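Quick illustration, no need to memorize.
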Amino acid sequence: MIDGAEGYSLRLIPSDKILGRFATTHDAWRAMVAATDEGRSPRLLVLDWHGANGSGGPVSSGRTLEYLARSGLGLPADYLRSPDQRRR
């Protein structure tokens, strides 16, 4: 969660097509997991934040975003970490 964020959007790159707008990162994570489960490459997905004054920017993208989404929802995600970072 970004302090001051009013909402979030999941964006497909390089087209910049918005796949969805969300009130919380938790809601956006569900959409991220659904998109990757449907076959979209996580490398093509970006989570952006939006402020009330029109400010905004990227939160995360790619495999890092997929890891954050899956682990944040309590789903298996350890396989997304690099081998030297995996729990033993």
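The radius of gyration is 13 Å.
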